[in-house]
Amino acid sequence: MDLIIVLLKVTFAQLGSCWESFFCDRLWPMFPELYSGAISGKWVVKMIKRIVKAHKPIAAFMLMWALSVGQGLTGQSVVVEVEENIRSSENGTVLGRMNKGGEFQLIASGEGWMQINLQGWVWEASLQSIDRGGFDLMVSSTIGENIRDEPQGTIIGRLEDGTLLKSVEKITGWIRVERKVWIWAQSVDVQGIDVSSKEETLGIGQDETEWLTVGNNGLPVLNIPNGDTLLRALPRSSLEVLARQGNWAQVTINGWVWAPETSQDLLELPLVVDVQIADIADRGKELQGRLLQWDLQFISVEEADGIRSDFYQNETFLLTKLANSEDDFVYVTFSEGLEEELTLLTPLDYVRVVGRLRTASEKLTEAPILELISLERVTYRNQ
């Protein structure tokens, strides 16, 4: 409690003698709780409300002080004032969009952003079971899906395809889900305190970082302008812009790579070549996420249906089999940007595929699933 008083005094003192006088002579008497130490979350909200009514020019500053010190607002209700995106982190990947009027619990706050606990009901057919990063569900509908306040109830927002969620409760046809998400603070109201435009007035918490949202076809990331392709950014992912040069933008990507052998340099992880499919199930944990190379015979392009839980909903994949094998099938998934190239394949073509092992044994057929990294046609020795 003493620390809070000191912070208040020092903060106003740094702003000048007039602010210090304002604090000591006019604000301090308004709050006898400061003497008794009876400070709680409700008290901080009440404090800000009193200041809003009595001294509107000071309200924005006091709100930002409460947010930065972290006292009182956590656990309060947040009401969405305007339709706004929700993100995985502060200015991170867009997970969906909340409608005006939605009410959520405030978890944390940062400069210009608030973290809320998103909860609601989603139609079960639009969700896929997964096990990834502590989440057990993912929105699998390619056009996204509504989230509601109750089964068949009011739509409180819409979630993007691929958004990861945690299941809370399930009834016939519906699953109650939750996730901690971030929302722009200017678009919400905390217990009736409107924070819109206050940060702009004060010049506090302005985020000047530029972000680039990738289009629906993905985007190659090059080492230099017009250089070699390093990787391909997935559709609708967000990239932070570091610098610009003409029509080029230098970007940075935060993500994870598969590196289970933490003591070994990632570059030294060997490419696993021509491993026997019969061995994969026994070595599943060892090979999960590793790069595998096989010579395969292309059969057709297929689309996953709803019963294939190891695929995303309607995900497109190559049906192949090991070269010179009759029943060793391999499924190869690929990103949207490779569709045009793969249409040039004809049935029974031989291809050399490098891919990341997603699943060692698909539930229906026990065939492995690869995520395509590279593909080249080959003239097979027994062709």
How does this model look, in words?
By secondary structure, the chain is an alpha+beta fold. It has four domains: 2-69; 77-199, no CATH class; 213-252, no CATH class; 266-377, OB fold (Dihydrolipoamide Acetyltransferase, E2P). It has nine helices and 24 strands. The strands form four sheets. Strands 1, 2, 3, 4, 5, 6, 7, 8, 9, 10, 11, 12 and 13 form a 13-stranded antiparallel sheet that branches. It has a five-stranded mixed barrel with strand order 20-21-22-24-23.
Which geometry do the CA atoms define?
A: globular
Q: What integer is the average pLDDT?
A: 75
Rounded radius of gyration (Å): 27 Å
Annotation, overall tally of beta strands: 24
List the helices and strands and how they pair.
Elements lengths: L1 H14 L1 H11 L5 H4 L4 H14 L1 H14 L7 E4 L3 E4 L6 E5 L4 E7 L3 E11 L3 E6 L2 E5 L5 E4 L6 E5 L4 E8 L2 E11 L3 E3 L2 E2 L3 H5 L7 E4 L5 E4 L6 E5 L4 E8 L2 E5 L19 E2 L3 H4 L3 H4 L3 E13 L12 E7 L6 E5 L5 H4 L7 E10 L9 E9 L6
Parallel strand pairs: 19-20, 22-24
Antiparallel strand pairs: 1-4, 1-12, 2-3, 2-11, 3-9, 4-5, 5-11, 6-7, 7-10, 8-9, 10-11, 12-13, 14-17, 15-16, 17-18, 20-21, 20-23, 21-22, 23-24
Helix pairs in contact: 1-2, 4-5
Quick structural summary:
Helices cover 19% and strands 38% of the residues. The protein is α+β, with helices and mostly antiparallel strands and 383 residues long. The chain has four domains: 2-69; 77-199, no CATH class; 213-252, no CATH class; 266-377, OB fold (Dihydrolipoamide Acetyltransferase, E2P) (Beta Barrel).
